[in-house]
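Table S2 (continued). Query chain:
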Amino acid sequence: MKAGFIGLGKMGFNMAEHLLERGHELVVFDLSKEAVSALSQKGATVAGSLEELAGLLVTPRLLWLMVPAGDPVDAVISEFAPFLRQGDIVVDGGNSHYADSVRRSAALAEKGVRYLDAGTSGGLEGARNGACVMVGGQRDAYAAIVPLLDDLCVPGGYAHVGPSGAGHFAKMVHNGIEYGMMQAMGEGFHLLEASGFGFDPGEVATLWSNGSVVRGWLMELAARAYRRDPELGYLDGKIADSGEGRWTLEAALDHEVSLPVIAASLFSRYRSRAENNMSDRLVAALRHEFGGHGYTKNKS
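Corresponding output:
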């Protein structure tokens, strides 16, 4: 397929590179000259502006956004809006708030433009080798991008999950669950450290990655982080949050759903900014391993 791709940060660049290798034709735009230059060497067509990008695509156009949530998404859509035509499809693959996606979809529908909110999971490795994508919006627009999803995602790793907003709502809840899982792992390994038995945390994480009930990618990433440093001394335990956990709790309040584990994991992130222990260092290390998220270096 031919598509316009806007936003070549860590996730966007790897996704675009993956699609190019699968034979898709991409017209890319980003403020980073290094990113667009690197993709041009891999076969992408580089647009110097959004207007030029629009002119390089044939109606009905497919435009995929991988820009930060909030105002940046609105800014790109606003700047591109004069060039959009009836039947065009805009996909927001970032971590936008689901209510923003509902609003944007309704606004674009007035011009006959179809808007899909595509929550994207899998971290940098998923972006490079096969992601998981949750899509909300019109079914006909979803059907039109299936050939792209076939190559972007792992087998069984994409689905139409509901109307506009559903894709980003599903991704928001996914990230809330992720918060809770990582917090439980951090607390468990903290207890192993405090036990006095002299556990090798990397050995335990590797063991639990093979056949145990708690096996999975996060456990494999924990083993990787501990192999780098059994004390995780290269970082401190200050854990950032990118907003999805808070949005999940806000939605829980709106729908009167009890989420004590996810709530506690979010509050633990706030507490982590005043302390430094193994629990927090592991959660920070896991975020770095799967998503390339930044961390605060240990100054001691």
